[in-house]
Amino acid sequence: MKFSLFTITSALLATSAMAFSPAFAPRTSRVSKLSAFKSDIFTTTEVKLAETTETIVKGGRDLFPLLPKAFEGIKKIGVIGWGSQAPAQAQNIKDSLNDAGAGISVSIGLREGSSSFAEAREQGFNEEDGSLGEMYKVIAESDLVILLISDAAQSKLYQKVFDTMKPGATLGLSHGFLLGYLDSIGEAFPEDMDVILVAPKGMGPSVRRLYEQGKEVNGAGINSSFAVHQNKSGKALELALGWGVAVGAPFLFETTLRDEYRSDIYGERGILLGAVHAIVEGLYRRYQKQGMTPEDAFLNSAESITGQITKKISTRGIKAVYDDMNADDKKIFETAYSASYSPSKEILQECYDEVRCGNEIRSVIMQGDRVNSGKGFIGKIDGTDTWQVGERVRANRDDDKIPLNPFTAGVYVATMMAQIDVLLEGGHSYSEVINESVIEAVDSLAPYMHYRGVAFMVDNCSFTAKWGSRKWAPRFDYILDQLAYTAVDNGVPVDAQKISDFTEHRVHGAVQECCKLRPSVDISVSAPTSTKEIVIK
Q1: What was the pLDDT predicted at 520?
Q2: pTM here?
Q3: Which residues contact 331 (CB under 8 A, 6 or more apart)?
């Protein structure tokens, strides 16, 4: 059968148009700004972030006495799943409510026969007192169902979850992925239920560790976003804020489910996991070609990022990395930054568009199907020379001798700034942009990367993040090697406008304000903890 070029082109355009439901139609306008929210229970605070003013709630253990009022009408909370977030959130909520004398039970719900039953029992949940059980039984009995099974599993089981929930129960999510999936198939949450979100901006073990380590200083934890997607009862806002306080968030900022999943899925593929993995692999090879030993190459790539650069950003902001350099190092930084910003932004913009249109969500679900059917596999990625050398470097580490390599800093900061710009151009709030691109990177993930390695961190995150990081890291590695580093080697002049845009960027002041709201203690990843740490043995 023969087709004309016109016929083929028309068919392709029609197919492309059908692939995008109205919910995913590309938009040129910014997401509308959230209006200031008001709580009748918790004190709200206005913070000035660049040219915007946002409303937040500051957390702390001194707010625990308010939890019974925030959780009014809730007798049983069902935390469904046992992945990265569930163990930490369940334990934190349980401890907080017990401290508050709320009289609310917290139960873990798992699929029948799950190997996680044994792990849950080790953390004090058991069948005898009803705090551990089969997931649908727990769902049917709970007034608040916090659904923390994997994103791919949610896309398969959501209808049965909805059908099992009792009338008047609230659905709680810690990721907006399910909404993205429902949008993509033209469905929605049942109209007769409240739907809320509390999304800690860090991995589950960090959520628990900081909660435990901050008990003596009025609490510490991981900043969280919250959202009220449906408020049938009129009480959803207070419940969401109460949940965030109970988890231990130092501050809570408002978002929407759509903004959350877009920024979160995108961020994992960018500077949080995928991009930093690529930067380390690429610079490790580059520095060896320039004459460094493998050990020195690792010191000046991975160790420089996790041991020096991110620590400085954590306490003093992004620009402090540049401001503290001498004149010669600033020139090296500017060379790397100027060459790396645009290539990184090209991949980041593509990634954001793929998330927003639903393609990346479909990719996660398809990979889950491949894994479940035996046609796909997600293995560990710590077998390359980079991470083998890293094991030896960490074993003999002297933190005082870790360099802050200005070229590495230029590449890393350029990628972080490009990620920030894509989110700001997409209309996301400063609090969300900074938490997804800066705070989560430097305060939650980097300490684990420094302790066990970047590859270990990628291997031990959620399925969605793990798959996305593996998928996008090679893209960053390739484009930086092919465009950024070749530009440096070919003597392409520094783009003075890019450096000016960086030094004068409005995000720097906003980051410094957010630094004031960081956890009251620095996370200790080597201290004893009561939560699950390892996903892949």
Answers
A1: 66
A2: 0.90
A3: none
